[in-house]
Amino acid sequence: MTFRHIVRMKSISFLISLMLFVLTTGCASSPAKRAAALANRDAAAQGLPFRWEAKAYHGGNILVRTMVDLHSGPTRANAVLKADILALLQKAEASLGRPALEVEEVRLLPDGREVWVLQLPTPGERIGYIISLRPVPTGGTDILLNGPHPFTKTPDRF
Fold first, then answer.
1. Distance (Å, rounded) from C-alpha 23 to C-alpha 139?
2. SS3 sequence of the chain
3. What's the CA gap between 52 and 33, in Å, rounded?
4. How far is 28 from 20, CA to CA, in rounded Å?
5. Tens digits of residue pLDDT in 79-138
6. Radius of gyration over every alpha carbon of the chain, rounded to an integer in angstroms
7. Model pTM score
8. Contact of 146 with 43, CB cutoff 8 Å
9. Alpha-carbon gap, residue 85 to 102, rounded angstroms
10. How confident is the model over 2-12, as pLDDT tens digits?
11. What does each C-alpha distance from 137 to 9, 79, 114, 158 come to in angstroms?
């Protein structure tokens, strides 16, 4: 291949890339929808119950994190474990400079984990912590805390 062929191939490649960019940005929500799809793929692979949605907002687009529809119900934790979980949540929130937030509900994941949902002062805004309870062979239970995961409970408000 000569230098001229390489330059021509690079020019054609650049023009094709430019055309694809123009076609996909013609619809303002396409980049946001692609970003949401990629983020959702990663969230699903990590076993997280949160998903992203592209929403129109003031002439542009934003990504809004929501939680998948899960059944709510009582925690599997007994009274002692529940108190320990609440203390861990309070400590986690205090480390972020937030006051102790009230637990609004517990959502149950199919794999036995629970999402403890805390209500923020902002209407519609929530924080989810994924709680795993694992029995220890020597007795007792380990509490694994994954979060915080801020999300919007009412995605249609945008």
1. 60
2. CCHHHHHHHHHHHHHHHHHHHHHHHCCCCHHHHHHHHHHHHHHHHCCCCEEEEEEEECCEEEEEEEECCCEECCCCCCHHHHHHHHHHHHHHHHHCCCCCCCEEEEEECCCCCEEEEEECCCCCEEEEEEEEEEECCCCCEEEEEEEEEEEECCHHHC
3. 9
4. 14
5. 999 999 999 999 999 999 988 788 999 999 999 999 999 988 888 889 999 999 999 999
6. 22
7. 0.75
8. no
9. 13
10. 333 333 343 44
11. 63, 21, 22, 48
Residue the block writes with tokens 């509900």: 105
The number of residues making up the chain comes to 158
Whose structure tokens read 């542009």? 60
- In this structure, are residues 136 and 84 in contact, taking their beta carbons and an 8 Å threshold? no
Q: Which residues contact 119 (CB under 8 A, 6 or more apart)?
A: 101, 102, 104, 126
